[in-house]
Write a structure and sequence with these properties.
about 450 residues, mainly alpha, Herpes Virus-1, 3-stranded antiparallel beta sheet, two-stranded antiparallel sheet, 14 helices, about 55% helix
Length: about 450
C-alpha cells in the first residue's frame, strides 16, 4: 500500500466510546522494543514501513501529513530517515499479542473501579463488565446518566433526592446507601490512636491535634528514624542532634541543587554545540560534492584542490571554535564536580565532629551515673549499717567499771603507755571499720 492510499483510509481510532489506550495507567512494564518512536507508548494499531520499522497508525498518519505539507516529494522513516513510499498494515501477530498482554488499570479507576485487565481486553471490560460505566437512565423521562451497577431490573429512576435523617442533607437515591454507611458527616467513629469517639466530620481535625498519634521527627528527611507520640515529639526534637544541624543540611542541599542545575544546563549546551559541529561537517561535505559536480568542465585536480582548501579552512576555523567551547564547558563541569566533592567532604566532617562531641557527652554522663550508682549501693547496703548498729548497742550496755577498765592505761611503763597517756584513751577497733575504710565515695 502506498502513502496516498494509506492517507485515504478512514481512521477508526476516533470512534465514539473508544478507549484511548495511550492514556491508560500501566501496572506492568513492557519491553522497550514495543514502544513507538513517535509517541513513546506501546504500539496501538501498528503499521510497518519498507525499512521494517513499526509505528502506531495514528502517529504515522500525523507524521506523514505534517511532512507532506513541507516537502511533497517523499517521506523519510522517522527512525532511520530512509525514504519510503509504501507501507504494510500487516505486522507479526506476536508483536500485537505482546502489546495486548500489557496489564493496565480500568480507565474508570478514578470513579472507583479497581480492576486490572490486559490492554487488549480493556475495551470489552468498559463496554460490558465495568459497573462504573455511565449509561442512560432506564426511565425515558429522565435525561441523566447513571452507573451500570446502580441499575435495577424494574427500570425505576433513582435520581430522586432523599433527605438524610442525621445531617439533614439531600442525597440522590443511588448514593444514599453509601452516604448512610460511610460518607455521612454525622456518623460517629473511633480514633484508632487514642480511642476517643468523635464525629465523622471532626475526625480529620481530631487526628491533626491528637497527642497519641505517632509522629516522625522533623529531621526524618536527614536520617532520624524515631516515631513517637505527638506529645513527646517536642522533647525529642530538642535533644536530637540532626535537628540542630538541619539548617546546615538545608543550605548544602540548596547549593547542591543549584550546582546540579548548572551542570545540567552546561551538558545541554555541550550537546547543542556537538550537534552544531556535526551539522557543519555534513554541510561542508555536501558543499564540496556540489562544487566538484559544478566544476566538471574545469580541470579535476584544480577544482578538488580549491574545494578542499576552502573546505579545510572553513572547517578548521569552525572546528577550532567549537573545540574551544567544548573544552571550556568541560572545565566548568570539572569545577562543578570538584565543588560537589568538597561539599560532600565538608558535610561528612561536620557530621563526624558532631558525633564525636555527642559520644564524649555520653561518656561523661555514664561516668556520673556510675558514681551515683556506687554511692547509692553503699548507702543501701544493709550489712554495713547492721554491723555499725550492733557495735553501738554493745558499747551502750557495758558497766561503768568495764568501760573504765577498757580506757585505763596499763601500769607497765613503756613507749606504748607513754603514747597512750599523751593521746588520751584509746577507742576499741570495731568490726565495721574494715568495710568503711575500703569504701571510697
Amino acid at each position: 500500500m502506498d502513502l496516498k492510499e494509506f492517507l485515504a483510509l478512514e481512521p477508526n481510532y476516533d470512534a465514539e466510546g473508544q478507549v484511548d489506550l495511550r492514556s491508560l495507567e500501566l501496572v506492568s512494564d513492557y519491553d522497550s522494543h514495543l514502544m513507538c518512536a513517535i509517541c513513546h507508548c506501546a504500539f496501538v494499531q501498528p503499521v510497518r514501513l519498507q525499512c521494517d520499522h513499526v509505528f502506531c497508525e495514528k502517529c504515522l498518519r500525523s507524521a506523514i501529513t505534517s511532512f507532506r505539507s513541507a516537502d511533497p516529494d517523499g517521506f523519510p522513516c522517522p527512525s532511520c530517515r530512509t525514504p519510503t513510499s509504501h507501507l504494510s498494515m500487516s505486522v507479526p501477530r506476536l508483536l500485537i499479542n505482546m502489546c495486548d498482554e500489557i496489564q493496565v488499570r480500568c480507565p474508570l479507576a478514578t470513579e472507583g473501579c479497581e480492576e486490572v485487565v490486559p490492554r487488549g481486553h480493556v475495551q470489552s471490560h468498559v463496554d460490558k463488565y465495568c459497573g462504573y460505566q455511565l449509561v442512560p437512565c432506564p426511565d425515558e423521562s429522565c435525561d441523566k446518566m447513571t452507573r451500570k451497577k446502580d441499575l435495577q431490573t424494574g427500570k425505576r429512576c433513582r435520581h430522586d433526592y432523599w433527605r438524610c435523617s442525621r445531617c439533614e442533607e439531600d442525597v440522590m437515591e443511588q448514593d444514599y446507601e453509601e452516604h448512610d454507611k460511610e460518607l455521612c458527616p454525622s456518623l460517629e467513629t473511633v480514633c484508632i490512636d487514642c480511642g476517643t469517639v468523635v464525629l465523622q466530620r471532626a475526625l480529620k481535625t481530631h487526628i491533626e491535634a491528637c497527642p497519641e498519634v505517632l509522629s516522625s521527627c522533623a529531621a526524618s528527611k536527614y536520617g532520624c528514624q524515631v516515631k513517637i507520640r505527638r506529645a513527646e515529639i517536642t522533647t525529642h526534637e530538642q535533644q536530637c542532634p540532626l535537628v540542630a544541624i538541619g539548617p546546615y543540611f538545608e543550605a548544602q542541599n540548596t547549593r547542591l541543587n543549584s550546582l546540579e542545575l548548572t551542570t545540567r544546563h552546561l551538558q545541554q549546551r555541550n550537546e547543542i554545540f556537538e550537534d552544531g559541529l556535526a551539522n557543519i561537517r555534513s554541510t561542508l561535505v555536501e558543499s564540496s560534492r556540489i562544487d566538484s559536480r559544478r566544476n566538471d568542465t574545469a580541470p579535476a585536480a584544480d577544482a578538488e584542490e580549491s574545494a578542499d582548501r576552502s573546505a579545510n579552512v572553513f572547517s578548521s576555523n569552525a572546528t577550532t571554535y567549537l573545540l574551544s567551547l567544548h573544552e571550556s564547558l568541560r572545565e566548568e563541569v570539572n569545577q562543578m564536580s570538584h565543588a560537589l566533592t568538597d561539599l560532600d567532604a565538608r558535610a561528612s566532617m561536620s557530621i563526624m565532629n558532631e558525633c564525636l562531641r555527642i559520644k564524649e557527652d555520653m561518656a561523661h554522663t555514664n561516668a556520673a551515673v556510675n558514681s551515683v550508682r556506687m554511692q547509692v549501693q553503699w548507702l543501701m547496703n544493709p550489712r554495713l549499717h547492721g554491723t555499725r548498729t550492733g557495735a553501738m548497742r554493745t558499747n551502750g550496755t557495758s558497766t561503768p567499771g568495764e568501760a573504765r577498765s577498757q580506757f585505763t592505761p596499763s601500769s607497765t611503763p613503756g613507749p606504748s603507755s607513754a603514747a597512750g597517756s599523751s593521746l588520751g584513751p584509746l577507742r576499741p577497733r570495731r568490726p565495721s571499720d574494715t568495710g568503711r575504710e575500703g569504701t571510697k565515695l
